[in-house]
Specification:
This protein has one domain (25-136): Serine Threonine Protein Phosphatase 5, Tetratricopeptide repeat. By secondary structure, it is mainly alpha-helical. The protein starts with a helix and ends in a 10-residue tail after the last helix. Helix 8 (93-106) packs antiparallel against helix 9, helix 8 (93-106) packs parallel to helix 10 (127-136) and helix 9 packs antiparallel against helix 10. It contains 10 helices and no strands. The chain has helices at residues 3-18, 30-35, 38-41, 45-48, 51-54, 63-74, 77-88, 93-106, 109-122, 127-136. 23% of the residues are buried.
């Protein structure tokens, strides 16, 4: 079989496998699955096996996935990653709004507001930044226990 036929076959298979996903919209599930998920933000092994008890929005069982989220949350990898992303691409609005959401969840409201405002200056359609600013106009959350 020639190289061109192999490449064409690979492209056809990839299109068949992933083609249906191209018509789907992008979802912002970080808030539900990570930021507002007590299974992730409060270190608890028992919570990994009863996610619906901790958060009724979670209707599936993924203890390994949530364990990795929990470890990342515990070791601040998300903030480190976003700090690097912002340093390398300061015009990337999503990095600013993701960091704003983390600051908000952790109770650092000044940093959350500053990052959300920066995200909106970069992209006025950034719905996550708008959401964080809307949350900031409500009563302040309590920071998760560490």
């Amino acid at each position: 079989m020639s190289e061109r036929i192999r490449i064409a076959l690979l492209l056809v298979i990839a299109a068949l496998v992933y083609g249906n996903a191209l018509l789907n919209g992008f979802t912002f599930d970080d808030y539900v699955h990570i930021l507002s998920n007590p299974t992730v933000t409060n270190l608890s092994v028992s919570g990994l096996f009863e996610p619906a008890k901790a958060n009724p929005n979670l209707r599936f069982f993924r203890p390994v996935t949530f364990a990795t989220y929990e470890l990342n949350w515990e070791y601040d990898d998300a903030l480190k990653f976003l700090n690097v992303a912002i340093a390398n691409s300061p015009g990337y609005s999503s990095a600013w709004s993701n960091r704003a959401a983390i600051w908000y969840k952790r109770g650092d409201l000044e940093s959350a507001r500053a990052d959300a405002q920066t995200a909106l200056r970069l992209d006025q359609a950034n719905s996550q930044a708008q959401y964080v600013l809307n949350l900031l106009s409500e009563p302040a959350p309590s920071a998760p226990q560490r």
